[in-house]
Amino acid sequence: MNLDVAGILIENPRTFLRFLAHHLGSMDTAEEVLQQFCLQAVSKSSDIKKRESIPRWLYRVLSSTLAHYYRAQTSTLRGKAEYARLQSALLHEFAAEPESVCTCFYELLPTLKPEYAEVLRRIDLRGESRAKVAEDLGITLNLVRVRLHRARQALRNALLASCKGCEHAFMNCECVVNGSKPV
User: Fold this and answer.
1) Which of 96, 118, 163, 181 lies at 20 to 30 Å from 172 by C-alpha?
2) Cβ contact 119:148 at 8 Å
3) pTM check: above 0.85
4) 104-177: which CATH topology?
5) Among the four given CATH numbers 1.20.120, 1.10.1740, 1.20.58, 2.60.120, the one describing domain 3-95
6) Where are the domains of the chain?
């Protein structure tokens, strides 16, 4: 660590803080960015070759730290906006038209292994927690997860084999609406 850099940081924190507060508009945010700046300055102080260039170098580090803060904020805001947009789109999509599970689901459930059918009934249809199902069955939570995954795969394969009209979503089944039976 360069002792000259540490000395300037210790002697002049208000100067750097005023600079940051002016650019950020908030003293709390400025203090937060000041801490990041001090950490950067101290950790990179060994890069300085000439003592005379320390003040100029510190302001470059300060500007770099400020730019990094702005980039992070912009990225966070973009992510939040995209999340809000997707949430709104999904809520609108699902609220627009209530869907029901393909009734072939109920006809195919008994054809699965009994342990698969049970976890599907309890977790997917009744909404029971995986932890409760694991406790009731006397098995580990991990085994319930594996069993549920395998059960869903087996059901999906059975639906694909028997219900050609529903192969994309298995919702609002057309084979029952049209009166045709699963193959």
Assistant:
1) 118
2) yes
3) no
4) Arc Repressor Mutant, subunit A (1.10.10)
5) 1.10.1740
6) 3-95, 104-177
